[in-house]
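Summary for the steering committee. The consortium agreed at its last meeting that each partner would contribute one worked example illustrating the joint modelling workflow. Our contribution is presented below. We chose a case with several input lines so that the handling of multiple components could be demonstrated. No manual editing was applied between input and output; the record is shown as generated.
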Amino acid sequence: MKTTLLAAFAATTLAAAPVAVSPSLIESPQTGGLEFKSLSSISFGPNGLLLVAEPGTASIVAIQTGDIGPEKKVLDKPVADIGSVIAGGLGAKKEDITIKDLAANPASGRIYLAVQRRPDNAVLIVTVDAAGKVAPFDTTNLPWARITLPGGTASKVTHITDVAFDGTRVFATGTCNEEFASRIFTIPVPIKHGSTANVFSAETYHVAHRKWETKAPIQSFIPYSDKGETFVVGAFACTPVAKFKVDDLQSGAQVKGVSMVELGSGNRPLDLFSYTDKSGKDWLVVHTQRFKQNAFGPSKMWGARISMDYLDAPQTNENAARRDEKQHEGPQGIEIVDSLFGAVQADKLDNTRAIILKENEGTLSLEVAALP
Amino acid sequence: MRTENDKLPRRALANARRQFSVFNLLILCAFAPLRESCLGESARTNWKIDNGTLAVQSPHTTAPGHLSVFVEGSSRPLFGSKSSEKGTLFFKPSAPFVRGQSYRFTIETGASSSGGYFSLDQSDPVRPRVHLSPNTSLVPANTLKLYLDFSEPMEQGVFLKHLTLQKRNGEEVAGAFRETELWSPDGKRLTVMLHPGRQKTGVNLHVDEGPVLIAGEHYRLVASGQWRSTSGVPISKEGVFDLEPIVADHEQPDPARWQIHPPKAGTTEPLVVITNELFEPQIFARALQVKQTPGDAEAKVIDLQHIEWRFTPEAPWKPGKHEITIDPELEDLAGNTTQRPFEVDLSAKLPHPNLRTLSIQISPP
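What follows is the complete predicted structure of the assembly.
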């Protein structure tokens, strides 16, 4: 096992070649000097555009990675005990490493992990290639832009829960350490270094207790378009899935979400993504952590797929579809995704596969999970 | 498996560690010839740490790929970038070298092997202290948030391991906290959010598991003594804070019931506001502002039900009407704001928002 790990281990990076900036994505890019003080969420846009949430500076950083294939190579076998591999490269013990987020680059198949080391809280992004080789992500020659969220470091938003790109805008969601609040941020594209974001306060209906959930933080989300309208589809603790119409809103406005689905109480959503199955049907995948042991699977960490039809359903709020966590199946169009059991992080790679970070008795492995 | 350290005589290792303290080296001079610890042969290798980067001069190579750096005792090389310039090899670790940690570097050319040891001296350890805010044991049973204030920035990602809520008999309250970790930007303040799903009336977790706090019971919030600062120094003595929940608070704070003590015109006496319930003092201090009047505000708990807010203007007060604005997002311990309670029952009449401003009249002297 050790030999395998060492073979998979890359100690250093070679200086990356300069990467051309796609003018449609980043405006006034910077090169060099990019450092992160903290990391929370990471995700990929098109053409190797990596979005990084840095809560310590209340900012979003867009990086043109240049990691665009052309050949897409996917992890050919699980990377066992990847926590030890990363910890070794950071000079730390395995238990002093937290993998805060995972992003699969759809353009190349390469996997990016946001990592934090204890006790000094140093952070680093590492990459994992198809051979399982782990290397630090070298930004030396990469174009990047930083957008500060409204209020900057004086902002009450101290935790950026998720970040994503829908092709026309960057979205982020944030919460606050002083208020039980939820914010949605939008950043126009091209992403201009030094600019700021629009902000909306979000509230939604809580299906479980039939009340307006005035300020519950959005844990994870995807941008979603339907009939020319743009929505943020967000998941909350305890776990309504709601959509927020974000067209034509002025910054500072309050937006009310419409609850579409309730997955049952005691679930904390971790990741959200959509995909299209072989038959052409669209699904929303909600990867969550149960408050207590799952009645129908081996782990508190589990996932469900929800037919995207629910996002257009007339039954909303108090009449929204509701899964009974004590039942294995139903309602129709809501199904358990077996391959997500045990996953502590998950991200879509393509319409047939997700990349997951799977925990087994305290040891993490990086794996490809088949989507049904 | 035999490690490279095994090749070294113990005395040589000890000498190397003692002699190659980085800061001592820096005091001596840059690239002064140093006694080296030999890994295979006796070639001379000079090195230093400058601005977090290891710089090495070797008589055998200027190829960056020949240089590797390890935590002492580990066979896994550190992540980092390598380069060379004017005969010097450079290694900048991807995450900074850690003070007090011993490191080993090797230069392996195939034909020769050399290297050395170094460590960054640890500055005087400062033991972190921890306090609960607000500093009170009587809290509403539906309390949503409390705060732990540390004297040093703390390690993150382990608060659920180091923080427990215990019943009077020492039994831990399982699932007491919201799992999302919320630190202030300086890393010294942790928001302790009691699990909203259990604290909110009517949510299934509240029904299935019960609330986190029950009025009339006695609890202890315990911060583990193993919790480390970012410098690696543990609290050592665990922080223990008694909590005695009282009746739940579902009411909006009502500023109309706060006491206001206006100052005298022509003075810089503080304007004082005293609430009729508890808030977190640091947040409350920022939540109130006097319109068009720069100055400093502070707030403190004066007893179990009152916060005192004191605002001292930069310039003497002018006579006339002044207005105090209240942040509409200011929450009491149970998450109620002046504008609405934390929980809104849609089947009942919606509550009316309370005042967002307070007016005071300052009389001429």
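Chain A is about 5% helix and 45% strand. The two ends of chain A are 31 Å apart (CA to CA).
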